[in-house]
Write a structure and sequence with these properties.
The structure holds two protein chains of two kinds.
Chain A (H helix, E strand, L loop, with lengths): L5 H11 L13 H4 L8 H31 L4 H29 L2 H21 L2 H29 L6 H29 L4 H22 L5 H11 L3 H4 L20 H15 L4 H11 L1 H5 L4 H23 L1 H20 L5 H29 L5 H30 L1 H27 L3 H8 L4 H4 L4
Helix pairs in contact in A: 1-16, 1-17, 3-6, 3-7, 3-8, 4-5, 4-6, 4-17, 5-6, 5-8, 6-17, 7-8, 7-14, 7-16, 11-17, 11-18, 14-15, 14-16, 15-16, 15-18, 16-17, 17-18
Chain B lengths: L2 H36 L8 H4 L4 E6 L8 E6 L8 E6 L2 E4 L3 E8 L5 E8 L6 E3 L4 E7 L5 E8 L10 E8 L4 E4 L4 E4 L2 E3 L5 E7 L5 E8 L2 E8 L4 E7 L2 E5 L5 E6 L9 E6 L5 E3 L11 E2 L4 E6 L10 E6 L7 E4 L2 E7 L1
Parallel strand pairs in B: 12-17
Antiparallel strand pairs in B: 1-2, 1-26, 2-3, 4-5, 5-6, 6-7, 8-9, 9-10, 10-11, 12-13, 14-15, 15-16, 16-17, 18-19, 19-20, 20-21, 22-23, 23-24, 24-25
Classes of the chains: A mainly alpha, B mainly beta.
Membrane topology (chain A): Multi-pass membrane protein
GO cellular component, one term (chain A): plasma membrane
Protein name (chain A): Sugar phosphate permease
Chain lengths: 467, 337
């Protein structure tokens, strides 16, 4: 059964890929720390709303696509599996492009707008698409749009949020995003209940949600210019040197160089993300493992991801806050211990409801501890000029590591069998967690430049959000 | 643009989007109701009038409110009026007393169900089902049910697909996953990790069955025994077997040297081992069913944009005739004799 994990896997990969960033918490003065109690900035909520509406739009289509392809277009399940595969790979390549364009033009809002707009246009095309070729083309363009918008969107979140509350801001965004993913299928099937078999009505509703998301982005989200703001700040600061992060020489008038990413701490973060990513078994495999063990999980197989999403939704903000207080590296690496727990629940010989629910809960908690936190971590680690590129790079590293993981784990499953294969990866992850911790220890060490950067009133954008 | 103007613009866009969608859905709903009212009454008869005579049970594929519902026509007049039941299935099979239905339901995620309805019993029985319905069969006496599904999860790497085939003994509800059976290939017990099974057909003895066994990139016709829990490969390149009512022939789909997913129907004489590939230019992706001991029926997609309106075709099992449409707008035929 093809499609089942696509939506959630995709959402997970997108979230997971977010950038890691150096944590300025411990170096932050007390006055800034107190901001942890303030509400999340309006820009973050607006971007969350944009993502929510866009996810309603895309997940409504994803939910009915298998039925539409097989029942209306008459394609076989295998052809659908092919379309499903496209969903996975397409966006990774354009993600880097989106990040680079965003940094180069210093216009993250408009690059994100192009990405959201591209996906909205595909909903119109879907109304006219006939046959596998057309549907495949439309879905490919939709994924291109997703790839394009992710990094600039995360850069906007970072630019509108003080460093001290980045973890919570990303957590809030991911929670809203996941809410949309849950509403989409319900909306789609409600419409099919009203007008049985009328898939174009679902596509019209999907288009409406996409257009509303686009309108919120266009009309309410401020056009933040991270590089220009930074130059202004630098110019007005008593000491320009103090305002510049360690890796960036004082505000450059030229487009940013990606060489800014070539610094040791960012490299260590990517290495840690890759090591952990390679040992992250895809949700699909874990669900399959649960379904193989007992008929209960098998019967509810398609709904397993809903359980994971509920836990993710509930924990994204609390764990994001925890990362703001405790340090992002600690929560990020520690989150993988939750994943080890999920593996043990999935691989153990005892099935039944408690083990299945524990696995789903731990998996959702793992995503909540790593997904937005990784984005927050990256955002603190790279200079604002190349933030979108940095976020895109980490996301792509994680996506590539996860793909390698899928290929490798598929072979391991065939070779060792279900339980032993999961146990083997769990054991490797137990070894990798201290390794990642060691890699990130140096990254977390506060540096004066970043501490100053963290103090800058970056939430200026928030107050102007409604303007 | 002032903040106020932006908010007004946003409200206008949202009202247009929501209002437009609501209007579209309501107009579509009215259109469906009018079409249903205006359509000439389908040549339909009551289920009660057919359920005691020899019949063909199938999935109705006429676009409309009854799309996907189980329907039946008399065996004596397959092109005649159909009786439509209220049950929705993606795949259906029936004996004189039982109906096996594999279906899917939308919601927060699409779920699947397998139910066995027995005449004289008030409520249907639910069987566990993992994955998208693919094949369904009951043994002739209705004592065993076999389901095949496409399983999700390992499609991640797009290296192929995985199937799950379960045979359930309906008397006690116990199920057997065929991957747990002993597999004998060329006289030796083998345990290939990449084995998959699909498309069960039962013999009349209540123990023997045939199924497709796939491993090492090749598909085999295999014979199984429920009591001994074994599977023995017989012949390469034979998928979705179907045993003739007299038990002398097995029909299956065959790829030969065509591209993947392009099959023709072939019939094997079990006694002589002679195989006949049947005429017909279109690929058949179905588990064929025997109309009688000499003719086969199977489903094919409709033409062009009406692919979802599948038709059931009939062809002589000895290869002496071209296939022709037997039941329009139908799928998943099961012959109840």
């Amino acid at each position: 059964m093809y499609m089942t994990d696509r939506p959630r896997a995709d959402a997970a990969a997108a979230g997971q890929g977010a950038s890691l960033r150096r944590n300025g918490v411990r170096s932050r003065p007390r006055g800034v720390r107190s901001r942890v109690g303030t509400p999340v900035g309006s820009t973050v909520v607006l971007l969350g709303l944009v993502s929510l509406l866009t996810d309603v739009s895309s997940e409504a289509v994803s939910a009915v696509l298998p039925l539409y392809l097989t029942a209306v277009l008459g394609l076989s399940p295998l052809a659908f599996g092919f379309v499903d595969g496209l969903y996975q790979g397409v966006s990774a390549v354009v993600r880097i492009l989106g990040g680079w364009l965003s940094d180069r033009a210093d216009r993250p809002k408009w690059v994100a707008f192009a990405g959201y707009g591209l996906s909205a246009v595909t909903k119109v095309a879907l109304l006219a698409a006939q046959g596998l070729g057309a549907v495949t083309a439309v879905i490919t363009v939709d994924r291109l749009g997703k790839g394009l918008r992710t990094a600039p969107r995360d850069a906007l979140i970072a630019a509108s949020t003080p460093t001290a509350t980045l973890g919570r801001a990303f957590g809030m965004h991911r929670a809203l995003d996941t809410t949309g993913a849950a509403i989409g299928p319900l909306l789609a099937f409600s419409i099919l209940w009203l007008v049985p078999g009328d898939y174009s009505a679902v596509f019209v509703a999907s288009l409406a949600a996409a257009v509303m998301g686009l309108a919120v982005l266009l009309l309410l989200v401020p056009d933040l210019r991270p590089r220009r703001d930074r130059m202004t700040t630098a110019a007005t600061a008593t000491s320009a040197a103090a305002a510049a992060p360690a890796a960036a020489p004082a505000a450059a008038p030229t487009p940013p160089s990606l060489r800014l990413l070539r610094q040791g701490r960012f490299g260590r973060l990517m290495l840690a993300a890759a090591v952990l990513g390679v040992l992250t078994i895809s949700d699909g495999f874990l669900y399959l493992s649960l379904a193989r063990r007992d008929d209960l999980a098998a019967t509810w197989f398609p709904l397993l991801f809903v359980g994971t999403n509920v836990a993710y939704l509930a924990l994204a903000v609390p764990l994001g806050r925890l990362s703001d207080r405790w340090g992002r590296a600690r929560v990020l690496v520690g989150g993988h211990l939750l994943l080890v727990g999920a593996y043990l629940c999935a691989a153990g010989p005892v099935g039944g409801l408690p083990a299945t629910l524990a696995c789903l809960f731990l998996l959702g908690a793992f995503y909540a501890a790593t997904d937005g936190v990784l984005a927050a971590f990256t955002a603190t680690l790279v200079p604002p000029e190349v933030r979108a590129s940095g976020i895109a790079t980490t996301q792509t590293v994680v996506a590539a590591a996860r793909f390698a993981s899928s290929v490798g784990f598929g072979s391991l499953w065939l070779w060792l069998g279900r339980g032993p294969a999961v146990y083997a990866v769990a054991a490797a992850l137990v070894v990798a967690v201290p390794l990642a911790w060691w890699l990130l220890r140096g990254v977390e060490r506060p540096t004066p430049g970043l501490a100053s950067a963290a103090m800058r009133p970056r939430d200026v954008g928030d107050t102007g959000a409604g303007a | 643009m002032s903040a106020r103007a932006r908010l007004v613009a946003l409200v206008v866009v949202c009202l247009l989007a929501l209002g437009g969608t609501a209007a579209y859905v309501l107009v579509a709903r009215d259109g469906q109701r009018e079409a249903a009212a205006a359509a000439p009454a389908l040549p339909a008869v009551s289920v009660a009038s057919l359920q005691d005579e020899p019949r063909i049970v199938f999935r109705n594929a006429a676009i409309g409110p009854d799309y996907g519902k189980v329907a039946m026509v008399p065996l004596s007049d397959p092109g005649g009026p159909r009786a439509v039941t209220g049950q929705s299935c993606d795949r259906v099979f029936a004996t004189s007393t039982r109906t096996l239905c594999l279906g899917s339901d939308g919601g927060a995620g699409t779920t699947w169900r397998a139910t066995v309805t027995t005449r004289g019993e008030a409520s249907p029985r639910r069987l566990p089902l993992t994955g998208t319905p693919s094949r369904a069969r009951l043994s002739r006496d209705g004592s065993h049910a076999a389901t095949t599904t496409f399983v999700a999860g390992d499609s991640y790497t797009a290296t192929g697909f995985s199937t799950r085939t379960v045979i359930t003994t309906l008397a006690d509800g116990s199920g057997s996953d065929l991957e747990d059976f002993r597999l004998v290939h060329r006289g030796r017990t083998v345990r290939p990790a990449d084995r998959n099974f699909w498309g069960v057909t039962f013999a009349a003895d209540g123990d023997t069955f045939y199924v497709t066994a796939s491993f090492g990139k090749q598909n085999w016709l295999a014979r199984g025994s429920l009591s001994r829990r074994t599977l023995t490969t017989l012949r390469a390149d034979a998928e979705c077997p179907s045993l003739s009512p007299d038990g002398t022939h097995v029909a299956y789909k065959k790829r030969q040297d065509r591209r993947a997913g392009d099959w023709r129907v072939a019939v094997l004489d079990l006694a002589s081992g002679r195989e006949t590939v049947l005429p017909g230019g279109r690929s058949v992706d179905d588990q064929v069913e025997w109309l009688d001991d000499r003719q086969l029926v199977y489903g094919l997609p409709g033409d062009g944009s009406r692919a979802a309106e599948t038709n059931v075709w009939v062809v002589a099992a000895d290869g002496t005739s071209q296939p022709r449409v037997l039941i329009e707008k139908a799928w998943s035929p099961a012959v109840v004799r």
